[in-house]
Design brief:
- The chain is of the alpha+beta class.
- Helix content is 23%, strand content 33%.
- The chain has eight helices and 20 strands.
- Strand 12 (273-277) and strand 13 (282-285) form a beta hairpin.
- 40% of the residues are buried.
- It binds adenosine-5'-diphosphate (ADP) and magnesium ion (MG).
- Adenosine-5'-diphosphate binds next to helix 1.
Length: 379
């Protein structure tokens, strides 16, 4: 028998409480400190069956620690983890009924691809015929049928990671945890495996919790994204909501690379907040509870800005740079005529590129402009 502590294995049977549960996982006020430093601070979330949820944040934001507390490899200071209605906070990892895929593949080097994938089923005493069928199906789904007799060292990094994925999928755990599983691969392979992971997840209706620091990867894969910062969740929402209604400047910046335009609230109505920008113009934004005169930053993503005739829109300026990026063009505009002249970044279809030095106006739909009190310096 190979060493089992290399790759912790979940229990032989799926806990009864999991079957037919609409809410496979809930985490309540999880906290972890390391010698006085808070790594995870009161993280709570509920994840529904079949959801693909991603923890997104920069290095050190507490993603892995949160995942390890859910997995059972790291004991929380306080808080609880409930899987399928059962409190598993103090249970050993292998008793939680969860699957894992980590960045380092952790394949058994002396076993073939087939044996690696069959291993979790052997552990569970699955009868031979069924084992053969399930291993065969899983390898086929991942496009590995032609290399079942190879050993890990005879495979590329991408192939090894696919084997690791198969090994986690083969016993159909109700929830699979993945910590930067594609982090070691090059961009092209990563794109390809992202598509495969998503396809398999949808095909099998898997519940996945995925960790990444890559915004694009999170957007491609996730039904919902928990944006983490300093051990806390800033916002837990669908990609669309995160883009359209960022709740903090950090989220607006991290996901949308937003422009932050300084100004003050000039007027509030039920439908809008009017912001007088320091660059001179008047910008209409989504309503935000703030008193007139409050210093604010209006956030708008480069892709949500449009060109208009100079003098129209919320800003008039001069085009300083134009860069083609495939079918898109990125441009920067230097506002003129106001006290504030920080560059505004915009992104347009390549066909609408302005000319260098051109004088242009900028406009934005009010629904695409968020307003944050200036004190909230989250970025
Ligand atoms: P992420 O996965 O988002 O990069 P981690 O969860 O690994 O972040 O780390 C969160 C914070 O906790 C970091 O400041 C990290 O240095 C600290 N940390 C993580 N694990 C340990 C540990 N075993 N001992 C001490 N500090 C740790
Ligand atoms: Mg990590």
């Amino acid at each position: 028998m190979p060493e089992t502590d290399l790759m912790p294995e979940p229990s032989l049977t799926v806990p009864e409480a999991l079957t037919g549960s609409g809410k496979p996982l809930s985490v309540t006020r999880l906290r972890k400190t390391y010698s006085g430093v808070t790594a995870v601070d009161e993280v709570s979330m509920e994840i529904a069956a079949g959801e693909f949820v991603t923890f997104l944040g920069s290095s050190g934001s507490g993603k892995t620690t949160t995942l390890m507390m859910i997995a059972g490899f790291c004991e929380p200071d306080s808080g609880s983890v409930v899987v399928g209605g059962r409190d598993v906070t103090r249970l050993a990892p292998q008793k939680r009924g969860l699957g894992f895929v980590f960045q380092q593949y952790l394949l058994f080097p002396h076993m073939t691809v087939w044996e690696n994938v069959a291993f979790p089923l052997q552990l569970r005493g699955v009868p031979k015929a069924e084992l053969r069928r399930r291993v065969g199906e899983t390898l086929e789904m991942a496009g590995l049928s032609s290399m079942t007799r190879r050993r890990p060292r005879e495979l590329s990094g991408g192939q090894q990671q696919r084997v690791a994925l198969c090994r986690a999928l083969v016993y159909r755990p109700p929830v699979i945890l993945m910590d930067e599983p594609l982090g070691a691969l090059d961009k092209k392979l990563r794109d390809q495996l992202q598509t495969e992971i998503k396809r398999i997840q949808q095909e099998l209706g898997l519940t996945v919790i995925y960790v990444t620091h890559d915004q694009e990867e999170a957007l491609v894969l996730s039904d919902r994204i928990a944006v983490m910062r300093d051990g806390r969740i800033d916002q837990f929402d669908t990609p669309q909501e995160l883009f359209e209604r960022p709740r903090t400047p950090f989220v607006a910046d991290f996901l949308g690379a937003a422009n932050f335009l300084p100004g003050h609230v000039e007027e509030q109505t039920a439908e809008h907040t009017l912001v007088r920008l320091d660059s001179g113009g008047l910008l209409t934004a989504r309503p935000q509870a703030a008193q007139d005169g409050t210093r604010v930053r209006a956030a708008v993503q480069p892709g949500r800005l449009a060109l208009c005739p100079p003098g129209d829109g919320f800003c008039t300026g001069t085009v300083e740079t134009v860069t083609y990026v495939g079918t898109l063009v990125r441009a920067t505009v230097r506002p003129v005529g106001g006290a504030h002249s920080e560059l505004v970044r915009l992104e347009l279809p390549a066909g609408r590129a302005p000319a260098l030095g051109e004088r242009v106006g900028l406009s934005a739909e009010p629904g695409n402009v968020s307003v944050f009190p200036d004190a909230e310096n989250g970025g």
